[in-house]
Amino acid sequence: MKKGFLVLINLFLAFNLFCYERYSEVDATKKDFIDKEKTEIVIKTSINDAEIYLNGNFQGYSSLKIIDLISGVYNLEIRKKNYETISCSILVRNGFLLEYDFELIPLKGELFVDNIDAGSEIYVDGNRIYLNRSKIIIGYHEILVKKFGYEDFFEKVMINPDEIKNVNVIYKLCDFHISDFSVSRKIFNPEYKSDFGKCKVSFYVTADSSAEINIYDKDENLVNYVKYSSFNTWYQCFYWDGLDYDGNELPDGQYRVELKSKNYNFAENVRIDKSVRYNLTSITKSGSGIGKLPVVMHLSTNEMKMSFSFEPEVYYFMNGFSYNRISSDLDMQFSFLNHFEITIGGKSSRNYLYNSLFAANLSIRAFDDLKILDDGYFCYGVLARYGFSNYKSFFRTGIDNGSGLGIGLICGFDLEKAFFGCSSEYLVGASDGNLLIDNRVLKNGLSFILKPIKELNFGIWGAINSAFNVDNSFFVENNTYFFRAFDVGVEVNFMPFPTNLIFSVQCNTQIFVNNITYFSSKISLSYFF
User: Cα separation of 362 and 426, whole Å?
Assistant: First the structure.
C-alpha cells in the first residue's frame, strides 16, 4: 500500500513537471488599462496566420485579439506548418489589455555536402556557408560549389525536417577565360594620396594561366606593365598610381591600358590630369557649400557623396534663458554631366524636452564655369530647394534654417589655393515649409575658403537674413526686418590619407538684432563614391 502511494506521488510530480516544462508561463510584452470588468489579450507572431489554441480549443489565426475571457491562466499553443510549435501559459486579467509577442522558429533539416576538395566555396541560395555539414531551414534550396579552375557545381535539393540530405560534389576542369576587364577611373589625378589618385584595373579569370598588362602613352611607348605568371583565384586587380615602371611621375595625357593573355586582348583608355579637383565641401540644405551657405566650384568629374553629421546646438536668449538640441543628418548628393547636382537629406532631432523632431530637404542646381586664369575659374549657377519639418522652427522665424521653398543665385572665383564666393537665396514658408504661411526670408552671404593642400581646407562665411511678414509662436511679431539676423561661422575639411572620406568640423553663430544668439557645432563624415 505504502509503495503504491509513493508511486502515485511520483507520477503526480512527473506530470506536473511535464506540464510546467510544456506550458511555462510567459510575460506580456505590453500592458494597458481597460474597463476593470473586461479582459482582452492580443497574440502576435513574427509570421502571420499561425493557428492559436487556448486550452486546446482553436481560437483563430495570428495576429489575434480575444476579449471577455474569464480571468486566469490559459495554456497557449501556436502552430504553423514548417515551424516549431510554441507551448506556454499566459495570464488573462480583469481590467488589462495584455499583448504577447512570439518569434516562430523554422524547422530545420541537415545538409551534408560530400566530396569537398580544399579551396572550395559552398553557397546555399547565394549565401556562403563555411561548414560542409550545416542545419538548413526545410524547403527547396539551391546548392552551389565553386572551386577555382573548375566548373561550378549546382544542385537543387529539398530539405526535410530531421533528415540529413547528402549532396555529392563532382568536379570538372574548366577552360581558361577572361571577363569583366575594366578601369575604375577614366580620368584621375595622381597628386591625390587617396583612391582619387589611383586607377584600379580589374578583371576575372576562370583558371590558371598567364597574362600581362601593358600601359602605353599616346606615342605607343611602353611606360608601365604588370606580369601575371599564374592565377590562383578569380578576381584580379592592381592600382596604377600614374608612375612609370621606374617610379617616375608621368605627364598629363592619354594612356592606353592593355590586357593580353592567349587569345584575349582588352584595352581601355585613361587620362592623367593634374588639374582635376575633388571639392572638399559640406552638404548644406542648398547643396554643396560651406557651413550654411551654398558655394559653386569647378567640377572636373562626376561625383556621388554621402554624409552623416552630428550637431549639438545651444540657444541663448537675452534674459539668460537657454535650451539645447542634438541633431543628426543624413544626406546624399549626386553631381552628373559636370553641370547638375541633386541633394536629398533628412534631419532627426531631440530637444531639451526630449521631443522627437524630423525634417527633410531636396535641392537641385545647375552650374557652369569659365576659365579665367591658369589655375582659376569663375563659377556660377542657379538653385531651387524645398524643405519641411514636423514642427515649427526651434529658432525664431525670419531666418533660413532649411525649411521653405526657395530659389537662389550663386557665383564664385575658384582658384587652386583659395575660393571667394557669394550667394543670394529667397525663401517662402521659411518657418516649417508650409507655403500657406507668408513667412519669407532673403539671405545674402559671402564665403572664403583657403586650400593649402588638396586634402585640407579652411573656410569662413557670413550672411545677412532679411525677414518679411515674421510670425513666431514664441514671440508675437508681424513685421519686416531688413537686418533680422547675422549668420557667421568657420569650417575645416580634411581628407585623411589614403581614404575617400572627408572629415568636417564647423562652428556656427546666429545673432539676432534683439540680442538673441544661437550657437551650434557640427561634426560630419562624408564618403566619395
Answer: 15
